[in-house]
Write a structure and sequence with these properties.
The chain has 198 residues and is mainly alpha-helical. It has 2 domains: 1-61, Arc Repressor Mutant, subunit A, CATH 1.10.10; 67-198, Orthogonal Bundle (Tetracycline Repressor, domain 2), CATH 1.10.357.10. It is built from 9 helices and no strands. The protein has helices at residues 5-24, 27-34, 38-42, 48-66, 80-96, 98-110, 115-142, 151-171, 176-194. α1 (5-24) crosses α4 (48-66), α7 crosses α8 and α8 packs antiparallel against α9 (176-194). The relative contact order is 0.10.
Length: 198
Amino acid sequence: METPTKERILDEALVLFARQGYRGANLRELAAGLGLSKSALYKHYESKEAIWNALLDRMEAYYARQFGAMDHLPEIPDSWEGFRQTAMRMIRFTVQDPRIVLTRKLLLTEQFHDARVCRLATKHFLEGTAGIYSKLFEGMMAKGLLRREDPAMLAFCFTTPISALIHLCDREPERQQECFERMESYLTYFIGAHAATP
């Protein structure tokens, strides 16, 4: 089934904006990459800003569906092995999904030029992810898997090293396997340090 033109425009725009930034990208180049005229592009989106905002809206919705969000939390694990699987699924999605990799690049470069992008970068690189894990940890404490601690501080401590390794994967993709191994080791350390004692 052929992808609708509006979606194709956003796919191409993500690549272009991630490579050239919002200000560096022009609609003539976007249209040419799609085999469209600039006027045909305007039939779907009235301006570059409209494409930009639609792209950010789509990214937020996609990330919430695939990774999780405060109103769409992953299932609370029933075991530490379940937690390990959930965490590694979320990490692998973040590191390997091509759309998320491009979006992260876009957020990193445009966060200094656009207030909405700055808020999204804070949400996805720090507060939103830590908030999701805070809720997971609250649920795991209620199930007796995790020692009673401040779940927000625990989530901050958990996500910060992983975030650093994700950014290392972006800068040095050839080290991805090494980063995954380090994340797995960190998960083992974290479980040993914070599991509730029987």
